[in-house]
Specification:
mainly alpha; Arp2/3 complex 21 kDa subunit ARPC3; 2 strands; 78% helix
């Protein structure tokens, strides 16, 4: 194995560990139901995608969710699966775009595209896959999820309005928060990541 591959594996391991720890630092926002919590664990994956490549970012997403599944496993793996797919959408999209244009404007554009991809995939994923899985595997009815969300936002009346008024705006806001922190911190840590 070459020195460069070993160096990349070490960086991916460290960033995965950071992402895993950051998954536990989650907080709800008052305008969204409690089951939607902001965490910034996608930031180390974005660092990996920007410094090593998009697949490195995806690998960080995979490892952090695998570790979370092993340690916590509170949703029979559905939460980790959802987190991986949604994080994959943001990190891979941003990583591919940034790889072609490694400038500040390129970073901003890549993060905007990553946020849009994440919001779309989270919305479609919840509608077609994640919420139905929660209902089938954990016996947690979609109607109950809608009921919880409607207590926070009266516009939520069914799965469609749950997606439109909760899932979509939550993921856009999460993407903005993660993107802003990434933009503020990445340049400071990039010399270490590129050694």
């Amino acid at each position: 194995m070459t020195h460069k591959k070993i160096s990349s594996l070490i960086k991916i391991s460290v960033l995965s560990a950071m992402a895993f720890i950051l998954m536990f630092l989650e907080f709800p926002l008052p305008m969204f139901p409690d089951f939607l919590k902001i965490d910034i664990s996608d930031i180390p994956a974005l660092f990996a995608a920007f410094s090593i490549g998009p697949f490195a970012g995806v690998l960080v997403e995979f490892i952090k969710n695998l570790l979370h599944l092993i340690v916590k496993n509170s949703t029979a793996g559905i939460g980790e699966f959802a987190n991986f797919i949604v994080g994959f959408a943001m990190v891979f999209t941003a990583g591919v775009i940034y790889k072609k244009n490694k400038t500040k404007k390129g970073a901003v554009f890549s993060l905007i595209c990553g946020t849009v991809a994440m919001a779309i995939i989270a919305s479609l994923g919840n509608y077609f896959i994640f919420l139905p899985l929660y209902e089938k595997v954990l016996m947690f009815p979609i109607k109950a999820v809608v009921g919880i969300a409607s207590k926070v936002n009266k516009n939520v009346k069914d799965i469609n309005t749950l997606i439109i008024y909760s899932i979509l705006p939550f993921n856009i806001l999460k993407g903005i928060i993660v993107s802003l922190i990434t933009l503020l911190v990445y340049k400071k840590v990039s010399p270490i990541l590129h050694k």
